[in-house]
Amino acid sequence: MLSSWSLLLALASYAVSREITFPPVAGIQHPIYGFAVDEDAAELDITMMMSGITTFAHLPYVHCLANESEDVEKYDIAILGAPFDTGVTARPGARFGPTGVRQGGIRIGAEFSWNVYTGRNAFLEGFRVVDCGDAPLTFLDNTIALKQLDKAHKVISGRKANHTGYTVPRIITLGGDHTTTLPALRSTYHHWGAVSVIHFDSHIDTWDPEVLGGGLSHYAGVNHGTFLHIAHEEGLIKNTSIHAGIRAPMANKKYDLKNDKACGFSILTARDLDKFGTQGIIDKLKERVAGSKVYISVDIDVLDPSYAPATGTAEVGGWTTRELLTILDGLDGIELIGADVVEVAPIYDNPGETTVLAAAEVVHSLIALMAATPVNALS
């Protein structure tokens, strides 16, 4: 049996062996991954994922909507939130989409974003990408809100780009419901003229405003199902535009498709992917928009609800997230002058944040497409 003295010595030895020494408390959070070393032995600071304000992919925040008299940091690609959802015909909630997509992008960081498929890092290709925050939009009057978004796009795209190779910054909008694409197309027209739209969606969104909402009032006719019809009427888009992923039912047996064609669109249905494969879809999209400037609009409901439940008008039978990302990456080389990801309504997501994670990665792919091909503006 151990004596009392021996027992005390044993306990003291155990206490010493279990002692933990903590580093000094610093006022600055250390990077979560420490430091990474590139091929040239330069240290790259990997941003702490859970610290700081939540911008998309931890991008620097720039007050892009500051008064003209204020100095604003230059940028080449701007992320702009459009918290608007009073143009929906089904479930509301997309006004919180910009916040949701930023939350979904919290694990993305500039220094830690080398693409395993392409070997590229879109954030490190010489273009300054920033988060401009959200446009200040009223939720009480659609007409005023859309005018506010018109102005936000005008201000942000009206600043001189940081890159010396071209003059006009490009914008990726985080919706918001799909009505928010209309102000974006008005903005791109000002700088690049009419564009071909690649529209990823389960719905055609070219419905005649007189059919969808306009029977009540002109005000009601401007919504997330008519904005492409209106864009066509305003001359913003070319007759070389195309839908991809369509599967939702039509309101009229013949008129809807006839009107859609008149608005300048051809259609790739969701099940066309089964016939042509991802490469076939890529080839058809590129062929359709060849020789023109391109705007890409991604309604997150192009994905099947099993991959993106958090949306206003979910339609079963859609694409997987991997299929959509493969198609987007395959569009490398197009002259992409603007883009958006819309209809993300985080309240309907699951605890695993399936939808916002997918939406954030789509934004990442859109940034890569822009970084791959600079585009000079007409004005």
UniProtKB/TrEMBL annotation:
Pfam families: Arginase (PF00491). Mn(2+) binds at H178, D201, H203, D205, D299, D301. Keywords: Hydrolase, Manganese, Metal-binding, Polyamine biosynthesis, Signal, Spermidine biosynthesis. The keyword Nucleotide-binding does not apply. Residues 1-17 form the signal peptide. This is Agmatinase. One of its GO terms (molecular function) is metal ion binding.
